[in-house]
Predict the structure.
Amino acid sequence: MIDVGIVGGSGYTGGELLRLLANHPDVKVVAVTSRKLSGKSVASAHPHLKGLYSLKFEASTAKEVAEACDIVFTAVPHGSAMDWVPDLLDAGSRVIDLSSDYRLPVDVFEKTYGTKHRAPRDAVFGLTELHPEVAKAKLVGNPGCYPTGATLAVAPLAKAGLVDRVVFDSKSGISGAGAEPTETSHYPNMAENVIPYKLTTHRHVPEIKQELTRLSPTIRVSFTPHVVPAVRGILTTAHVFFRPDALGTLQDRAKIAEIYSSFYRNAPFVRMAEGMPRLNAVRGSNFCDIGFEAERESDRLVVISAIDNLVKGASGQAIQNMNLMAGLDERTGLWFAGMAP
Amino acid sequence: MIDVGIVGGSGYTGGELLRLLANHPDVKVVAVTSRKLSGKSVASAHPHLKGLYSLKFEASTAKEVAEACDIVFTAVPHGSAMDWVPDLLDAGSRVIDLSSDYRLPVDVFEKTYGTKHRAPRDAVFGLTELHPEVAKAKLVGNPGCYPTGATLAVAPLAKAGLVDRVVFDSKSGISGAGAEPTETSHYPNMAENVIPYKLTTHRHVPEIKQELTRLSPTIRVSFTPHVVPAVRGILTTAHVFFRPDALGTLQDRAKIAEIYSSFYRNAPFVRMAEGMPRLNAVRGSNFCDIGFEAERESDRLVVISAIDNLVKGASGQAIQNMNLMAGLDERTGLWFAGMAP
Amino acid sequence: MIDVGIVGGSGYTGGELLRLLANHPDVKVVAVTSRKLSGKSVASAHPHLKGLYSLKFEASTAKEVAEACDIVFTAVPHGSAMDWVPDLLDAGSRVIDLSSDYRLPVDVFEKTYGTKHRAPRDAVFGLTELHPEVAKAKLVGNPGCYPTGATLAVAPLAKAGLVDRVVFDSKSGISGAGAEPTETSHYPNMAENVIPYKLTTHRHVPEIKQELTRLSPTIRVSFTPHVVPAVRGILTTAHVFFRPDALGTLQDRAKIAEIYSSFYRNAPFVRMAEGMPRLNAVRGSNFCDIGFEAERESDRLVVISAIDNLVKGASGQAIQNMNLMAGLDERTGLWFAGMAP
Amino acid sequence: MIDVGIVGGSGYTGGELLRLLANHPDVKVVAVTSRKLSGKSVASAHPHLKGLYSLKFEASTAKEVAEACDIVFTAVPHGSAMDWVPDLLDAGSRVIDLSSDYRLPVDVFEKTYGTKHRAPRDAVFGLTELHPEVAKAKLVGNPGCYPTGATLAVAPLAKAGLVDRVVFDSKSGISGAGAEPTETSHYPNMAENVIPYKLTTHRHVPEIKQELTRLSPTIRVSFTPHVVPAVRGILTTAHVFFRPDALGTLQDRAKIAEIYSSFYRNAPFVRMAEGMPRLNAVRGSNFCDIGFEAERESDRLVVISAIDNLVKGASGQAIQNMNLMAGLDERTGLWFAGMAP
């Protein structure tokens, strides 16, 4: 049994870790922290979990959490994780950080987030399908939700050297913005609406570039996000422009299918969709569904990926990383279908 | 041309007054106040109004607004209107107050809202169909959204002396809670959800009782509200229990239809629906649609009413009152269909 | 290992059985039928299940299914189940029927559905919390979705002899109407709308009356359903009118709480909610959440129940029944939280 | 007074014409046809219009309609309009066709729709802002919804010779698919979902290409549509790649703003948004809102346009064309705000 702790359990990713871990056969959640809810039951913040946990939120220190746990998930906001992670590591825990604090090289982090990094540490980027080295990591920087969907959509093509450039146009559910009410998340503003934002400057761009240029150094990457009236899910439309010398491959559907299935042959959570990927085929699950179509007489391949932003885009992938770190099959506790309809 | 002012123009009812008045042939909006947005364009708070107004929000006093206007709408929060209304009246304006400050007798108001009334004045309850005396009023207390839908649904039966008791079960869109983001209005909380609240103690109950007991002194009234995933609209299900001596009428569909059409023969905005009333037949409009069905071998008649809470339940009805106060046909500027689909 | 079959696997309840059973530790789904999809993969109708089943839909006879299975779920439409159930039973299977064919006495069924019953059999009404005798049943008539939420909300009060009358006002997600597109389920008709229907004559009324009068012979029952813009879930508002001699109990919150907790002390899936029940605390799960509030100076108690119509209101409850029939803990394979947000 | 007829009044564009024309000061709708609803009231198909029309649907011939009308709108499906238009024209009516039958040259139409054109006629493409010659047209081919939003977003840049290539990624409400229930429009399939479709082959591509290459012969155009959970609206994200010699202009925000305001100086319905365009600022109105942002150190400009697909994307634009054909101010009857929230 792996003793697990969650630092920051009151938000959406904390709640989702609790939901998923409740049915993990090899895990026991022994500590969940929340300063503001200290002493209250888990169900007070997460009514859907009533009856599944007798745990209460606690206001423990990193050292106390680390001493009780083999592996700790940090699910606190960006900029706060760096106040927890070093102490957790020093006290002997392995850590999976769901914030953005350990995903990027320090200089890129500081430029992107406009803040000094107070506690850099070596970390593995936890996009599980691309980084088997998470198995040995002490610290995993769990990827952002957009980078997960975007990178998985295009990685096989990038690796194959086919891509000149890619423009990602992503459509996200609003839960990605967190549990705190905002102007954007106000129901009358979000319902029956589509809200484009940070059209060219979203903070997730460096993660996507980092992963794709690792596979294809010359690839050019652009990214534009939108929020749509959905709670969960990110559907990413990747407009992929092939290199002039790869146009023959572009129109060869079987060849492209083969590139994907070969690249993901050991990745059980990546599914090539029979029709087109849709959010409601992955909702609540750790799957990433992918589909594609080539434009005739063009250099453009359209690739679609669909994930649940709170599962494969956050807490599910974090558990997938934990499984590998603990030497378990990566599907353990995650091998269930999403909810449809 | 009637010169009109709006006190508190940044919220939903203020925005809706502006939307509707932009096409009123006999009205000119000459002033709209907002302390926090003073100096900014109307479109800054209401992007949908861009191009239709050159007005800016101003931080004027009641006296200044009154001097510029024939009629003033007060669309400020409950408890704030009483700081504006007396000065507006004293400076010669007629006033239509969209808050709850002038809908109830002072003692009932104070008990219901748990606060002292600082400036009581004589007012007419502006449920237009039931109060033709608004035509001569200096001050109109525009009804709450729930009381409008509930009262119109049952008034004809109450007047006819048929009703022993009524239980209103209302389903409202979330815009009734206003433009400020809250826990309840947070999209992930509201989407795909139904939220019952204040099951037996909603503040609108005294308005409904006041209106129905005026028509039928012995009627017993209960009310339970819910929020549903919709921006606009209130669908009210009235479970009406007939008096023992009225059970013959209960099963006489033609007779009941006649009671309604007779009661509302001069009320152009009340429509007897051909099928069952639905929110999307009244959305954006000033109509109230009504339908009913009797339960066999029972004393229960189910009456359904549908309104747009921001129009017939607030700003539209306020303009309807204004039309009567100004001697205009009550349909002026309001005689258009809702938006469907 | 229990070998299980599903007759009619292409609809929502069939898909939900497959989703839930995929993670049941003691069950193997060995057959799933669909005449129109015979030969196609389960994922062709249910993309979310891709990777979890290698099964194909088959066009087998009842005899063939029964021979392969210990327990069979029939998830075919009302009126069709009676063509399967007798043969399944005769061939030795135990059967849980999710249609309405085996929930009511024959005479009540025929009057309610306006059709002759071609194959009556003895069956137990599978509202698990009220019918422990399902454990020994050969045939279980799994309850309708509305009756499940309504009956569980009021059963303890009825049993305690407190109730004169109850009016159920239910708000359902549209998935209850099935997987076939209709006028009502057309997104532009359903979004931002509330649709009342069959105000006094819904076919589920006899099931509710049957269960509640079993507990309290004199109770009077009315029921009015609505569809709201949600996929899953039924929130039922029970307006409960207490008997004159029970008004003291009505205002005693602790006493009523005790009545519920005592009645449901062995019912793990019924939870007394800390706040008010909401659809999003039970979505995707087998829980039924219940809350209540008494109206002051009145005879009315408002009780709210929330279930997922496809889980506790259909497929989850069917599996709960199966667990009891198989001598398993009723929570087996069902003890997980719903999905929130 | 202009006597107007609507051929095919039972669908969404027919209903929207009726809604909008009800408040047009210079128009009288004298005929509305529907074979299947002949003899029924307009409100039978469009409950929101109850009380606004005493018209009944009729099953008249083209000749009969033309004799009663000055201008006729044909709102029948693609492929059916060509059975009406010639007869209407021959009988002396001017015609605005909302189908796709008269938007493209015959050869392009036949290739795109895979069907022979039975009755080609000269027509003006009714994208009002780009085709002032509609004023004199006998027959106007009213543009598709996607082409309206896409073309207006990029036309000024194309005209200025700045654009090498553009990739349109559009997000549409489901009402664009019409009033008939389908698999896609089924609420449980559409809610909380995003559905990409016809990723590279949508039939509206030739319209967009036709309009943009008219302004810039060498421009390359790609288009990918999605349906999002909204009833109305199309938000188009145009990923515009500038020509190498235009990169200086790309980073000059004021210059680009000037190009737009100059191009649309006589186009009252095109608004440059203060923030980013959103569907809920144009819902129900004839406005097209536009905004843009340049990517740093790149050749990409992101342009966003938002329209209501049933108004500016269909019936509103049709009336705008009618106004010009009749010598009226193009705003007549259309100068109102959308509905927000």
User: Anything to note?
Assistant: The radius of gyration of chain D is 20 Å. The longest strand of chain D covers residues 163-172. Residues 42 and 314 of chain D are 20 Å apart (CA to CA). The longest helix of chain D spans residues 145-159.
